[in-house]
């Protein structure tokens, strides 16, 4: 493996997606800078060249062949939906979920965020008072009254002009509203996930909810470098740190801790 400035092709696209860049398949200056930053952060020679050592650290191969029973997935039967369990092996392989701590933290957070793996779409059916509380900047009085209980209109305005979305009239705020167990939101994030997963979810964003609710959540963990926090242990301090990285605070922390302990007991 040798990728450097001037390289092109699918491996470059895979590298760029992993580093959170636009996956255009052309290794230019922006990619080189990002590679150097990643190498330095991971204790490697920061030369901007991806050789076998860097590639294998970015894309470990051991997990892909890991037997699913390594994680005692049978112990999850009856505790989380079968549809979720069925997605785990593929997600484990794609995102280097290489040990029990990573899987436990991940499942516990997904469970909490999705109300027990039941919610795969953002609930945007806000009342006028709800809009004023959740989105005060976008729905001041009396504007909140005319948008209340109109999810498509609410998202189109609340998410307009940010996260890669067009203006309110474009409707992209609603098209790319939150989906998945940890809600993927915004056109930029949908585009990056589409490039990573190798399927056009920008054209068909509903795939995040119906096909990739768990994978999109793992992508969130990957992009936000949460796996490294998971590696630090099973203590409440680690669960708190993971929670803060996900929602910026500690909302629902006690429930997240309880869910972590439950899954850790099943999987360890």
Structural features, described:
The protein is an all-alpha fold. It has three domains: 10-58, no CATH class; 63-119 and 211-267, no CATH class; 123-177, no CATH class. Helix content is 51%, strand content 0%. The protein has 15 helices and no strands. The protein has helices at residues 10-18, 29-41, 52-58, 82-94, 100-113, 128-134, 143-147, 151-158, 172-175, 187-197, 207-210, 213-223, 227-230, 236-247, 253-267. Helix 1 packs across helix 10, helix 5 packs across helix 15 (253-267) and helix 14 (236-247) packs across helix 15 (253-267). The radius of gyration is 20 Å and the shape is globular. Residues 62-69 have low confidence and may be disordered.
Give short descriptive properties of this protein.
single chain, 268 residues, mainly alpha, 3 domains, 0% strand
């Amino acid at each position: 493996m040798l990728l450097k400035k001037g390289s092109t092709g699918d491996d470059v696209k895979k590298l760029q997606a992993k580093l959170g860049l636009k996956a255009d398949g052309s290794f230019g200056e922006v990619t080189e800078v990002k590679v150097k930053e990643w190498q330095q952060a991971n204790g490697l020679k920061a030369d901007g060249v991806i050789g076998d050592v860097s590639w294998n650290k970015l894309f470990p191969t051991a997990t892909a062949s890991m037997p699913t029973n390594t994680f005692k997935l049978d112990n999850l039967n009856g505790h989380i939906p079968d549809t979720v369990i069925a997605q785990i092996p593929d997600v484990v392989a794609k995102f280097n979920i290489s040990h029990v701590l990573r899987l436990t933290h991940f499942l516990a957070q997904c469970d909490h965020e999705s109300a027990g793996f039941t919610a795969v779409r953002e609930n945007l059916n806000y009342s006028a008072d709800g809009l004023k509380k959740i989105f005060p900047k976008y729905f001041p009085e009396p504007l909140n009254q005319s948008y209340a209980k109109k999810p498509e209109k609410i998202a189109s305005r609340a998410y307009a002009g940010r996260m890669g979305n067009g203006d309110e009239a474009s409707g992209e705020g609603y098209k790319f509203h939150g989906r998945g167990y940890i809600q993927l939101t915004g056109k930029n994030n949908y585009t990056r996930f589409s490039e990573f997963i190798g399927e056009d979810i920008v054209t068909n964003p509903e795939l995040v909810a119906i096909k990739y609710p768990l994978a999109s959540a793992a992508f969130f963990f990957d992009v936000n470098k949460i796996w490294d926090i998971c590696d630090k242990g099973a203590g409440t301090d680690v669960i708190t740190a993971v929670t803060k990285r996900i929602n910026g605070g500690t909302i629902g922390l006690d429930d997240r801790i309880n869910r972590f302990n439950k899954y850790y007991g099943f999987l360890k």
